[in-house]
Amino acid sequence: MFRSGVTTKSPEGAKWLCVTIPGGCEVGQISVGPTGLVWAALLDGRALIRVGVTRESLMGDIWVETRGPADNLRTMQISAFGQMVQNISVTGNDQVFAIGGEDRAIYFRTGVHSGDLTGKKWKCLHAPLQVSRASSNASLNRDKLNNSTRSTHSLNRPHSLCDTSGIGDIGDQSHSAPTSLPVGEIGGKHFETPLKNPRAWSPVRSVGSIVGTEVHPESDESLWSDRQDSCIFAEDEELGWGEYEAPWSWVAAGACTIELNQLPNWFVEQGTITQTELDQPWRLQILEELKSRLQSQSYKNIPLAVDTTSWVHVGEGRINLNGSVYVDCVLQLEWVHTNGTLTILNSDGATTMQQFSLNEITCVQCCSEPGSPRLAIHTPNLNIPVIRIQFSSDSQMEEWQTHFTTVCREMYHLTGAPSKNSVWAVTALGDIFVWDSKQLINILENQLYVQELDLTRKLLPIKIPLYTNCIPGTVLLLSGYIHDDIDRFAINLNVYPTFKVKPKNFSELENCALHFNPRFDENVVVRNSMIDGKWGEEERYGENPFTAGKEFVVQIEITIDDYIIYINDNKFCNYRHRLPASSCCMVDVWGKITLSKLKIQTPSIILNPKEMLWRQIGGHLRRIESCAVGVTWGIGFDHTCWVYNGGWGGTYAGTLNSSNINPMADTQDYRVYENQRWNPVTGYTSAGLPTDRYMWSDVTGKQKRTKDQAKLLSVHWQWISDWLVDFHVPGGVDKEGWQYAVDFPASYHANKHFTDYVRRRRWFRRCAVSTMGPWTELGHTKLLDISLIPLSDEEDSQIIVWALATGGQAMVRLDVSASNPSGAKWEHVNSDKPLSSISCGPFNNVWATAANGSAYVRLGIKLDLFQGHKWMSIEPPPGNPLKEISVNEIGVWAVSRKGNLYVRKDISSGWPEGSCWQSIHMDPLIISTAQNTTGFKHVSVGAKEVWATTDGGVILRREGLSKENAAGSGWNWTIAGNWQHITTRAF
């Protein structure tokens, strides 16, 4: 439409006139320049130019079409660049700017002049940003980490925060903190004192630390309110503003002029060779010819100049052996051919404080706190399960971390990429770890998992844990010697106890699936079971086949219906199941006998979670998901999606021990709360009552936090913004960012009421981390949750990926496979309410949780309709709104916002929604032994496994799972490694 009659005296004009456009064109936006140049952006990404515009003919004559950016611009960002134009603006001298329709980048039309108004081509620009308190949240671009001028191709919409050249610059910089912790002289060695200033804090919480609870916003009472304006769940508090890469939405250039002879420096390339030029066929052919001309020489018979099979690395640090105090020490790491030893000496090197073989190490983790670089060495089989070492600098810590990682890799022969059936996990610090299931191959024998335990010189009574499900086909062989003065002995297959929780304590009721009790004085063998602390009816038929002073072999074979017991290779009896045999967790033996060996044969895997060897993979993620064909995706703290590319190593391992690694970036927020109280004289002030919370605090008000005392975690982190008022707080804020309440603590709201006497305001400051890892960025769509499931067991089977955008919208990723792990495109799936978590099981089993805490199951999924056709709502457990869900062949499990765990019962193909929720309680023993553990944080359901993480950072494995007992019977726990997320969907 054209508005006629517009003048300075009549700015509203006279009337609208219709301007025809070419057929098949739909105009999305139009812009007019002062010289009469008219450009229009079409919805399909093309652009139209109006020619013939003069003073006499303001409407012009005809439209001329011009195409979008050329194909060669796609080489740097294939997933983002396209020929789509969303917005166009023309300067005072007819130069044209545009916004990309897909990548939201700024383009400049080159070659536009009076003789050629259509120009030559589109050029992508990097618009420099200025971040200040007055800046919008969208301007918090991750590009600020690298201050040096780079190519506009590398600066615009970067795949990661850093490039290879920038790593060295970052490593040379000091902690970018407003204030530093005091440095003292300790025993003649310089170390940063471990948090002598308790006010220094970080939003990242490390192992055993009480600082930085800000990273756990679930402690905020406002997050769990029942009001509709509460957030979906604490870990993804702001779902709508996850895109921090400044996606441009509008450009207005009418007030400026561009001198083509004096373009700004950010218009000009810095001589960087584009990826397109590097991938030209002629260049690749020349490189191949040069390689073929080089003569290869064999170096096998040439002796090594330096023998690296044995070496010793010595350094200084501070050691924590008793869990509270760090003392000076000397570290000595010795490697001899295929094994090594770590020796910890006191500060003078005269006394050995601790010494152990390196094969006792199961995991090496970073557990740093602000100003205190630390490593946690996990040795679960020693009397000290975790040894924490503090170093004087980040570089020294990373040096020792590299040495520990290298020797563990050599000792366990863990080279190359992990297998496709591995278990992945991430810590609260964003570190990525993987346990390789290849380690289980060593115990396979005739398609059965076999474990032999040497029990010689073991004193009785003895309890032997069974780290497997005693499913049908399991055989236990126990051999030993009977003493001459024997009266009776017993072999018990114990089940996890039943806990009766009381208001202030709990009672433990024992369970025994099989009590096998030969009694020599009565010449009988008693069989029985104990259920909830009560013995059942005894079975006593049959004489005692054992002889005093003789050796014996007891074989217990587990079938579907009963136990078959053999004595010295002769069948003795059958014993019907009274408790699920899969729930058996321990062999308990007592009496006057001497044991020699216990052999376990079972179709189910035998896995002691505490002995799992965790191997670090470079990168920085918050969530991770995998599937049975080996495709693994991850989500960063800034909601960026990453795809595992099959490499290994990273920044911690160095370039020599890494393969196929890429620059990687992530961001995180430091948050503090400004609290004020009202008084009738001065109004709201920072002077509170003696019983009030700190006027600058964390979200709970119990920890004092100030803006000036925030410190970055390591040299890899840098500030990318100043302190800003947060206007995206759950519950809403007023125009100045304040929330009001009657008193501390209370339910906060945005508008001040007459009875409101306190208020608070949240400030945040964003920091970014620069690292390396074997990950490839997947476009620029910010994600909240992901779930992967292959359609079949074939190696290159199609994989269905369900995901949630940061706004809670469900999506399906198409054409994903092992050969194409990134897939092709997203397809949106409609939902009535924003979703908070999503999980897909075998083919047609998709579940999700919504903002109101209810669950949804997707119906109508078919081979030709992966998206299904509608959602079915399912009520959550009473008083426990759900925040996360996981589904697979073994069942549907969910975690509530209160940290409770539930399993859905009676799910079948004809009844996909199931019948009810069954609560899975955490054993009181876990709560009492695992530090800071009060409830569940995350659950991951595999084909036959269920694993979970607690809010205290412990990984739990559910035992006793079977078709008859889908809820399982008990938990085994791994090392307490500050774990946040785990995926066992590939295992």
Automatic annotation (TrEMBL):
Pfam families, A to Z: Gal-bind_lectin, Hyd_WA, Pex24p, Tectonin
GO cellular component, one term: bounding membrane of organelle
Keyword check for Chloroplast: no
Entry protein name: Integral peroxisomal membrane peroxin
Taxonomic superkingdom: Eukaryota
SMART domains the UniProt entry points to: DysFC, DysFN, Gal-bind_lectin, GLECT, TECPR
Family assignment from sequence similarity: Belongs to the TECPR1 family.
Keywords: Lectin, Repeat
Lineage of producing organism: Eukaryota, Metazoa, Ecdysozoa, Arthropoda, Hexapoda
Segments forming domain Galectin: 462-601
Family matches, as CDD domains: GLECT
GO molecular function: carbohydrate binding
